[in-house]
Every structure is written in C-alpha cells, then in structure tokens.
C-alpha cells in the first residue's frame, strides 16, 4: 500500500541545535516527494521538493530510495522554524494527487 | 501570487443540516482538491477535480459530495452534517503538466457540527 509515515508527532529542540524530521514512504515506483509547512495562523505551503534539490530556509531533504526515506534536515534550528511539517508523496509524475503523512510539530525552544 | 480563498474561516452547523463549503482560485488551475485536516491524522483527501464537471473520490468521500461548474470554483457539500464531520477543511489547487506541481492551499474552514 502507498503510505507516508512520519513517526514523530512532536519534536522539540533547542535553538541552534540540529533538526531532523523523519519521513518514510512505501511505494514501489519512483515517487515525487515534498515537504509542506504550516506556520501558526498561516496556510499550508510548499517548503521543498526532492527534484529541485534546493535548500529552503536552511532546510534540505535527500531522497534515499534504498531506505525509502526523505528526511528533512537543518543544521541549526531557529525559533521561527516552529511549525507543523507534512511530508507528502505523489505516486506517479502527473497524477496530481498527494499522499500526506500525519505531520510532525516542531517546537524550537529558546 | 496564487490566491485560493474559502468562503468561511469558521462555521457552526447543526446535525442534519446541509452544508456548503466554497473554494475559489484565481490562477486558472485545472486541479482542485478538498482535504480534511485532523490532529494525528494529517491531511486526508476527500475529493478532487481535474477539470470542470469532473471529479474523483479521494480516501474519505463518504458523507460528502462536490460540485465544479466553473474552473475557478470547487464546492464541498455535506448532505447531512454529522458531529464526526467536525474538522478543518482545506481546499487546494494545482496546475496540470508532465510533473506533479505544487498545491496551493486556502486558509481553511473550521467546521463545527453540534
């Protein structure tokens, strides 16, 4: 079955500490993977996608097909990174549908 | 700048009422989506539409229907609201192409059914 798993509901780190939000997926083909973020009182928005291989707001994510993972990382967390993060998978290029994970709330403590 | 708007931010309805949630996008996107967002369950797709008058069931379509009469507007209908439909409802849109494009989300409608 196609599935996206985010094992942590809540992740708390101190400002300046490294952050890793875990995402594992179950899909036999070549999916497209995304991270979306929702800051407090803001709408859900795209943070990054694996095919662009960008670093956005200091975050990076590498698609590991062997481990079927797409973990989101940042070397030094900032308080403004506190938000809800969703990992999402699109099963086949062009199908337009996503499968979202259950989300991880990141709290960055001062 | 893509704009996806939803008709209400907060809505309170009684059990058994018919409820309409409206979503409008101004970027000429072909695809539109309705999701439920619940704590611990993430986003679950209710319905999506890839063209005017075209729709496809998502993962949790039971108790819901949709309507897309114009390209920019996608409505979610709760035929007879129930308390288990109390939730945050998110609308999104995306364009069509050879890759999976970014979905742009509305601000959400928090529906409470009493």
3D structure, described in words:
- The complex is a heterodimer of chains A (110) and B (114).
- With 110 residues, chain A is mainly beta.
- Chain A has no helices and eleven strands.
- In chain A, the strands form three sheets. In chain A, strands 2, 5, 6, 9, 10 and 11 form a six-stranded mixed β-sheet that branches.
- Chain A is globular and about 40 Å long.
- The termini of chain A are far apart.
- Chain B is mainly beta.
- Chain B has strands at 4-6, 10-13, 19-25, 31-38, 42-51, 54-57, 64-70, 73-78, 87-94, 104-105, 109-113.
- In chain B, the strands form two sheets. In chain B, strands 2, 4, 5, 6, 9, 10 and 11 form a seven-stranded mixed β-sheet that branches. Chain B has a four-stranded antiparallel β-sheet with strand order 1-3-8-7, with no helix packed on it.
- In chain B, a hairpin with a 2-residue loop joins strand 5 and strand 6 (54-57).
- Chain B is globular, with a radius of gyration of 13 Å.
- The interface between A and B is medium-sized, with 23 and 29 residues.
Structural class determined from secondary elements of chain A: mainly beta
Largest sheet of chain B: 7 strands, mixed
Largest interface chains and counts:
A-B, 23 and 29 residues
Helix content of chain B: under 10%
Order of helices and strands of chain B: EEEEEEEEEEE
C-alpha Rg of chain B (nearest Å): 13 Å
Molecular shape of chain A: globular
- Main pleated sheet of chain A: 6 strands, mixed
Oligomer: heterodimer
Helix content of chain A: under 10%
Distance between the termini of chain B: 37 Å
* SS summary, helix count of chain B: 0
Q: Beta-strand percentage of chain A?
A: 35-45%
State the shape of chain B. globular
Structural class of chain B: mainly beta
User: Number of helical segments of chain A?
Assistant: 0
Number of strands of chain B: 11
Q: Spans of chain A with pLDDT under 50 lasting ≥5 residues?
A: none
Radius of gyration of chain A: 13 Å
Q: Give the number of DSSP strands of chain A.
A: 11
Return the average pLDDT of chain B rounded to an integer: 93
């Amino acid at each position: 079955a196609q599935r996206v798993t985010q094992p942590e509901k809540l992740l708390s780190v101190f400002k300046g500490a490294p952050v890793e939000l875990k995402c594992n997926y179950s899909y036999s083909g070549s999916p497209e993977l995304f991270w979306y973020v929702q800051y407090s009182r803001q709408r859900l928005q795209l943070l990054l996608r694996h095919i662009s291989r960008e670093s956005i707001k200091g975050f990076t994510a590498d698609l590991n097909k062997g481990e079927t993972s797409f973990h989101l990382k940042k070397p030094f967390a900032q308080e403004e990174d506190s938000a809800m993060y969703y990992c999402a998978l699109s099963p086949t290029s062009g199908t337009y549908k996503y499968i979202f994970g259950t989300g991880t709330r990141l709290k960055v403590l001062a | 700048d893509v704009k996806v708007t939803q008709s209400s931010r907060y809505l309170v309805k009684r059990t058994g009422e018919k409820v309409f949630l409206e979503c409008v996008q101004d970027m000429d996107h072909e695809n539109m989506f309705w999701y439920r967002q619940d704590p611990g369950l993430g986003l679950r797709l209710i319905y999506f539409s890839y063209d005017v008058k075209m729709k496809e069931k998502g993962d949790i379509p039971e108790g819901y229907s949709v309507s897309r009469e114009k390209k920019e507007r996608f409505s979610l209908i709760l035929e007879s609201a129930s308390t288990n439909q109390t939730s945050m409802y998110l609308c999104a849109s995306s364009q069509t192409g050879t890759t999976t494009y970014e979905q742009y989300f509305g601000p959400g409608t928090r529906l409470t059914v009493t």
